[in-house]
Design brief:
Two copies of one chain form a homodimer. With 152 residues, the first copy, chain A, is mainly alpha-helical. In chain A, 66% of the residues lie in helices and 4% in strands. Chain A has a two-stranded antiparallel ribbon with strand order 1-2. Chain A binds a DNA duplex (30 and 30 nucleotides) through helix 1 and helix 3.
DNA sequence: ACTTAAGTGTAGCCAAGGCTACATTCCAGA
DNA sequence: TCTGGAATGTAGCCTTGGCTACACTTAAGT
């Protein structure tokens, strides 16, 4: 999935038939969708590296609930994108870029879980739903969440 | 994408290495991801039918920001799944099941936008982010949102 | 009544991300 | 040391959901 051009964001005159705006929104959602995979993997690998000292493809597969060939294929994509490195039969490691991304993703995840909890979502549901929702929260939304939690 | 078995949900003893739980969460997120497309289309078609009186594939394509062959392909899927009907060169219509789904999806969308607004997310971001997040909100979360908005 | 542009449909390509089946490598215990 | 099972890697298939290029209807304007 190649990201669509996401064309120029002309501000829409109020009250106009806002088709382009809607199309942009869907476009943004599609881009986010294609990034979710990369984000989940990087976060998980970072987690494994810090808690277990190593990240092996089977561990990644098991934690994600997919078969190991699926995991390996995606890890290959991470390598292509310069986020991870791995030598055959050795573990997986993150490049600085990968680590950077992992930390950003984790912070975002935690923020969203916190917000969900603070509006009364049960812990289990908050954790589960955040797993999907986190990939769609824009900067503006994250800022608002932080401010809300702060002012509570 | 076929939905994975989503294996048995044994409740996890607290403090244990909660791998299965995490795998289940990712599994749930994957299922949700494959449903997003269907939900978006059904909601949009319903919207076009009520506001324009008809839903044509090019309109759907334009509103979603994709080419019309892409739209047609997905609409074919809706037909396969019994959510929509269409005769060549005529418009697209929703079956009762499709309408039911459309209404549920729209209600959910609105609820999420409302919640985001109520915690201080700017309108534009709320609308855009809801487009992606809505597909991941569980029943428990939606109930919590409703309760939160109610008690405000 | 024709012609033509817009709308609609079809064919075929690509990448992502699942899967199963099979091959290879590693390492621990006999 | 050697050997067998677990871990890892590869090959090949499927579906989804994008795309472009091309074909066919429909309907509108002259």
């Amino acid at each position: 999935m190649k990201e669509p051009p996401l064309s120029d964001s002309l501000t829409q005159p109020a009250g106009m038939p806002a088709e382009p705006t809607q199309a942009q929104r869907f476009g943004r959602a599609r881009s986010a969708r294609s990034a979710t995979q990369v984000e989940d993997y990087v976060e998980l690998i970072d987690d494994l590296l810090t808690t277990q000292g190593e990240a092996r493809s089977t561990d990644v597969a098991r934690r994600l609930g997919v078969t190991h060939p699926s995991a390996i294929k995606t890890i290959a994509r991470l390598k292509r994108e310069g986020l991870a490195t791995a030598k055959p039969y050795r573990g997986i490691f993150l490049t600085p870029a990968g680590q950077e991304l992992a930390h950003r993703v984790r912070a975002r995840h935690r923020l969203i879980v916190e917000l969900l909890l603070s509006v009364g979502v049960p812990r289990e549901a908050a954790e589960a739903d955040a797993e999907g929702m986190e990939h769609y929260a824009s900067e503006a939304t994250l800022e608002a969440f932080a401010a809300f939690l702060d002012g509570k």
